Amino acid sequence: MPASALDLVALTQSIKDWGRDLGFQQVGIAGLDLGEHEQHLERWLAAGYQGEMDYMAAHGHKRSHPEELVPGTLRVVSLRMDYLPADTLMAQRLGDPEKAYVSRYALGRDYHKLIRKRLQQLAERIQQQIGPFGYRAFVDSAPVLEKAVAEQAGLGWIGKNTLVLNRKAGSYFFLGELFVDLPLPVDPPQDREHCGRCRACLDICPTAAFVAPYVLDARRCISYLTIELKGPIPLELRPLIGNRVFGCDDCQLVCPWNRFARPTAQQDFQPRHSLDNAELASLFLWSEDEFLARTEGSPLRRAGYERWLRNLAVGLGNAPSTIPVIEALQQRREDSSALVREHVAWALERHAQASTGGAARP
Description:
Structural class: alpha+beta
Oligomer: single chain
Number of domains: 2
Number of strands: 10
Helix content: 25-40%
């Protein structure tokens, strides 16, 4: 059916209704002009804040021009899905240095597959209604400025911690996009930010990764260090990581808007293998086969076994000098990975210094 014959207003409302039926908490329609976000990205890249994430500089202007990434695109349907499990005791786990802290988005199954499947189902419902149309679905899987798109679609504003914030839902949600060749009416963009004078996220960051409001130096961000960085974690940052072994939620934990965050109803996002209450020492003893079995379908696979052990070694180096901590580290002194051995040696040296009254722990 040609677009001129469609009731685009009614179709847009149907798309939002279907999106909610599929488990998304909000759906918005964005145009293609991402305005100053392109210049912000270029300044960020010029400063080198992307670190080893070379893909952030790839693809030319396709990241900020949806119509170049997918020719024929006229609108972007932006959707958000809450992921925060209930009662995962974030502050308590961070305050227990022998526990492993895993970012709450990574406790359950990998969100990419679930959201991509739901986006495909949404596209099929549209197709059942209007016939064939052009579309592509993306979930953090292509050069898309998804936070800018979400802001343009009215889903929230990009806060000082560089995350999308929503006045009714905080920031614990995933984003997905459906690029379409339909001239749907766009939603009013979020043209105001509501952070005000608050700088709680900037002040809480353990590694001082925010060089200014709205500007993150990824090279100091714990999420980058524990997930994206392939080599050794810089020495000066290791003590600051504490027990965070995969990602970091500190800047969300202190955000006042997250008092409105609601627990997810998605069973796939519930904690698996007790990762919301696991001991560093016990995780460090997983064999590679155990790691692969217990992280099947999990975001933790992104780090891989070697970097998982690297991260845990740092956590153990920051933990109290208990018998389980020291014994776990000693069992991997001769690990086959040079990367793991280096971080184990650092951790054991930290404990040796502490036991002899040497250099104080930062």
